[in-house]
Amino acid sequence: MTMRNMVALLGAILLVLSAQTARAVTEEELVQRAHDYMRGQTSVSVVDMTIHRPNWERTMTIKAWTKGVEDSIFKIIAPAKDKDNGTLKLGQEMWTYNPKINRVIKIPPSMMSQSWMGSDFSNNDLAKSDTILTDYTHEIIGEEEHEGKTVYVVESIPKPRAPVVWGKQVLKVREDDIYISQEFFDEDMESVKILEMLEINEMGGRLYPTVWKMHKTDETEEYTLLDYKELEFGVELDDDLFTVQALKRSLR
Asked: What CA–CA distances, in Å, run from 41 to 29, 52, 184, 185?
């Protein structure tokens, strides 16, 4: 073997080894970074949620506050007939508030798989959104491209005895930490539903997925769209915002 060929071979080996090392690090960190990027330390947003069915469609406007990895509160601000309906999430526990009956209800485990506000998002989707960080192991199984950037395809498998609903999830995360999609599989590893990010725009001081679409895998005429209208990160939020008492307070 000539010296040139030997140098080329050594270079190729080093590239492979460095890529494997980088992948071993980023497989776990990639999901953490993407989750942190989407939520920030704190955030305040206003989102239009459109629930579309073959024979009808309705839109609600929701204001949401998030703090840290686990805590969030959502309140409907329009239409008037739904105003002040809200949901509080602390860790993996959830409460809902209905102003018409002035009652707060803690959502029991038996209702966690039910639809949130009639949408294609379940209570579990909201309550367990952060368990992808703690209850799953991750492996990069492929790469794609989106708008000139590398997209990592990540297969997330539940850890043994993890208290999760899904048999696995497949995430697509862009190299700049932006989620492109999230696919949910049942225990038989059949795809059940997909969350797709349809548009990425500048919002909240960063590039962000501003239009989301959740739909069943085999259904095109039933879906829920989230369309971000306002978004701000790094907002100072008091701890007492994330309480049952705050859930009952009317928005002015």
From this structure: 17, 32, 26, 29
Range 39-64 average pLDDT: 95
Strands (E) in 85-190, as ranges, are: 86-90, 93-98, 103-106, 136-146, 149-158, 168-174, 179-185
Whole-model pTM above 0.90?
no
Q: Confidence band (pLDDT; 50, 70, 90) for 14?
A: very low
The answer to whether residues 88 and 152 touch, using CB atoms and an 8 Å cutoff, is no
Query: CB neighbours (10 Å) of residue 221?
Result: 10
Could you count the other beta carbons within 10 Å of the beta carbon of residue 121?
20
Distance CA 155, CA 139 (A): 5
pLDDT in tens, 73-128: 999 999 999 999 999 999 878 999 999 999 999 988 778 778 998 999 988 787 66
Phi, psi of 234 (to 5 degrees): 70, 25
Determine the Cα–Cα distance for residues 171 and 32; give it in Å rounded to an integer: 12
Structure tokens belonging to residue 252:
């002015």
Confidence of residue 2 (pLDDT cuts 50, 70, 90): low
C-alpha–C-alpha distance, residues 177 and 77, integer Å: 30
> 3-class DSSP state for residue 163?
coil
CA dist 166 and 43 (Å) reads 27
End-to-end CA distance of the chain: 78
Classified as helix, coil or strand, 252 is coil
For residue 92, the surrounding DSSP H or E stretch is none
3 state SS of 191: strand
Amino acid at 7: V
